[in-house]
């Protein structure tokens, strides 16, 4: 009996100690470009990306990619890869033709107040006679709209045709200027 009582007392003591345990900050390391680094030392954008990462396993990666892209699995035959590359080139050519034909109807410009790259992109947008919306992603409504449009960085400009389909997307002022030069001519 004394043995059982000692064990019960020890269990009660350990339970009291467990209730008073104060946790400390854990150091999390993740692999970037071949080496491990503390996540605490990452910049804000990389830290956000870390929160969206999914650990790899054949099943989860395959399932996640299918859900994310909502497309059929990529075939690994060389012919399929060539066909896919060809489709991308045709798709870009179609978008370029749409631009040359003046099919760009509207735009959405996603920006932040503190973004150093946003003013040059805004200047390009302001120089073109297009109707559109400027969305500040610092606001909760703007952030929600950015997430709904799959915008993950500022600045981002999305150009749409008259039917509302996306034609072009960029965050680079020079690329936007190059793409819109037909429109301003």
From TrEMBL:
Cited InterPro entries: Thioredoxin-like_sf (IPR036249)
Alphabetical UniProt keywords: Oxidoreductase
The keyword Ubl conjugation appears for this protein: no
Keyword Oxidoreductase: yes
Broad class of enzyme this protein falls into: oxidoreductase
Transmembrane residue ranges: none
EC number(s) stated in the UniProt entry for this protein: 1.17.4.2
One MF term in the entry's GO annotations: ribonucleoside-triphosphate reductase (thioredoxin) activity
Protein name: Ribonucleoside-triphosphate reductase
Natural source organism: Spirochaeta isovalerica
Lineage: Bacteria, Pseudomonadati, Spirochaetota, Spirochaetia, Spirochaetales
């Amino acid at each position: 009996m004394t043995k059982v009582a000692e064990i019960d007392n020890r269990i009660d003591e350990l339970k009291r100690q467990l209730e008073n345990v104060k946790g400390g900050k854990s150091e999390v390391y993740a692999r970037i470009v071949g080496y491990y680094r503390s996540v605490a030392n990452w910049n804000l954008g990389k830290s956000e990306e870390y929160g969206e990462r999914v650990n790899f396993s054949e099943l989860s990666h395959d399932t996640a990619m299918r859900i994310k892209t909502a497309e059929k699995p990529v075939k690994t035959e060389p012919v399929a890869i060539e066909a896919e590359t060809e489709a991308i080139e045709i798709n870009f050519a179609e978008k370029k033709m749409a631009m040359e034909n003046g099919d760009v109807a509207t735009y959405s410009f996603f920006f932040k107040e503190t973004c150093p790259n946003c003013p040059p992109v805004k200047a390009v947008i302001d120089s073109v006679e297009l109707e559109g919306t400027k969305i500040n992603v610092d606001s909760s409504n703007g952030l929600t709209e950015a997430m709904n449009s799959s915008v993950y960085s500022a600045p981002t400009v999305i150009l749409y045709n008259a039917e509302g389909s996306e034609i072009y997307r960029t965050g680079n002022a020079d690329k936007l200027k190059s793409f819109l030069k037909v429109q301003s001519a």
